[in-house]
Design brief:
Helix content: over 70%
Largest sheet: none
Structural class: mainly alpha
Distance between the termini: 39 Å
Strand content: under 5%
Number of helices: 14
Shape: elongated
């Protein structure tokens, strides 16, 4: 069999070099041989130009699929390595949570009850020395949140991160979000956080002989693997701060019943989550708690801006504020649902690998 024209063969060899090395090592010779045979047949039929054009048009899709398959295979291998180094087979069972007893549920609801009572007393029965605008004062909030949340979170980390410690992590996350928002550092902090996580994962996944992580870290991994909704519960722990932001522009916080209603919805959502066993109900409880808590601020704007009778015109004039509240709800909805979305993505990759 004669060879195709030299320029076409050389160009195709250059195109093959663009493919991933692993893919090229497996399929490169076969692809080149198929091309030569097709080019030879097309040339004999006087359709060589059309054949080369069709081959060039197919290259982008085949190239994208090759890189996608390679990246997916590396990700699957990395997940398997991560599961191996975080194995909890030799660890004692994870501590019980609120699904098993009301005692544990009371521990898990404690942060929301404490934060809710503090919000109610500071709003309706403010003590002397509580200056106006304390809701946006990071120094004042830091004096309250850090001594309350940080020691309990550290205690929880030392005990393998039981579920009652997650809301305190979320409360600290909400406070850090406030600092980042007011100082405009979030554009720096988010990329740095993602880069740190990526470097840590890369160090584990690229180790030719990965060893088990230390026991304290594996106990934390055991806690996360026991129930993936715990990450969403942790983000839900920032809800007291979210309520403060939602009521940020209210001029009559000490008169509105809707802040107390938002606190009640927050605590109710936490209770339903702690006692529910089905993961769909757990996520639904967190979503409902977030939604009704923020909707309390929306009702506050409608009922107290100029009165209930004019709620249509008020809603029209205050549309910018209403949109801001809806944006706040959407942001935290995405944050709370992000573990679920990541889990669905991981399961999809696992199913494709099994097939």
């Amino acid at each position: 069999m004669s060879s195709p024209p030299g320029p076409a063969d050389r160009i195709y060899r250059l195109i093959l070099r663009i493919y991933p090395p692993d893919y090229l090592e497996t399929f490169g010779d076969e692809m080149h041989q198929t091309f030569r045979e097709g080019a030879h047949e097309a040339r004999s039929q006087g359709r060589l130009g059309l054949f080369l054009l069709r081959e060039l048009m197919d290259v982008p899709q085949v190239l994208a699929n090759a890189y996608w398959d390679g990246w997916k295979r590396k990700l699957q291998n990395g997940i398997q390595t991560l599961q191996e180094v975080t194995s909890s087979d030799d660890l004692p069972p994870a501590p019980p949570d609120g699904r098993a007893s009301w005692r544990q549920a009371s521990f898990e609801m404690g942060p929301f009850l404490i934060a809710g009572l503090l919000l109610i007393f500071a709003t309706y029965l403010p003590f002397d020395g509580l200056r106006p605008g304390w809701q946006r004062d990071p120094e004042f909030l830091g004096k309250v949140i850090l001594p309350l949340a940080l020691p309990i979170l550290l205690l929880g980390l030392s005990r393998g991160l039981p579920r009652w410690a997650y809301p305190f992590a979320g409360l600290l996350f909400g406070y850090q979000a406030l600092i980042a928002y007011q100082t405009s550092l979030w554009l720096f902090l988010i990329p740095m956080l993602l880069a740190s996580v990526a470097l840590a994962l890369a160090a584990i996944m690229t180790d030719p002989q990965p060893a088990l992580l230390p026991v304290p870290l594996r106990r934390i991994g055991q806690s996360l693997s026991a129930d993936w909704t715990r990450l969403s519960f942790a983000f839900y722990g920032a809800l007291p701060w979210v309520i403060l932001r939602a009521f940020d522009d209210s001029h009559y916080d000490n008169r509105t019943p809707y802040l107390a209603l938002s606190v009640l919805m927050m605590v109710t959502g936490a209770l339903l989550y702690c006692r529910s066993r089905a993961k769909t109900i757990q996520i639904g409880a967190l979503v409902a708690g977030l939604t009704f808590s923020i909707w309390g601020a929306l009702l506050d704007r409608i009922f107290f801006a100029e009165g209930l009778m004019n709620w249509i015109s008020v809603s029209s004039r205050g549309s910018a504020g209403n949109v801001w509240i809806l944006e706040l709800w959407l942001q935290w909805m995405i944050i709370i649902l992000s573990p679920t979305l990541l889990l669905m993505f991981g399961r999809a990759l696992h199913r494709k690998r099994a097939m």
